[in-house]
Amino acid sequence: MSKSNDIDESKLSSKLFLESLAETRPATLNEMPNFEIYMDQLLAYIDRQLITINKDQGLTAAMVNNYIKQGLVSRSSNKRYTRKHIVELTLIQSLKTVLQIKELSSLREAFGDIEHSNIYELFLEQLDHELNLCAEEYKSLEDLESSEKALIFALRAYANLLCCRQIIAQMED
Q: What's the rounded Cα separation, in Å, for the pair 111 and 119?
């Protein structure tokens, strides 16, 4: 394969990635199944909820059971899962790459008795906003070397993580 094909494939890959950033969003509550589903259906559904680069990042039954034991996810009824479980697991899957389990637990506790549908609507709205901002910035940096772009996004993630952890620490006090 020639170097020019590698570049073309790289640009195509970037184009598809930008399209995903601009268009791919988790299902709304109304788009989710309005009936109980089994674990294998739940795992497949959650895997389609978020943009992933590495397909090995998928949710497993062991992970779901662990989240239930840790109180991050509601217990199922007769091994059947509802919209609430889909919401909880979508939130966890998106945030676990950034936050530690203890921080996820603190965040969940901070929301208290707020209805899961309200939290999810806030999540969807903010995720859409952040993904659109990210897509715009990704496009604006297209003339930079990949290493420079990666550094810019890594530093932004670091700065955002610092702020997030400070806020969570204050909530825990």
A: 8
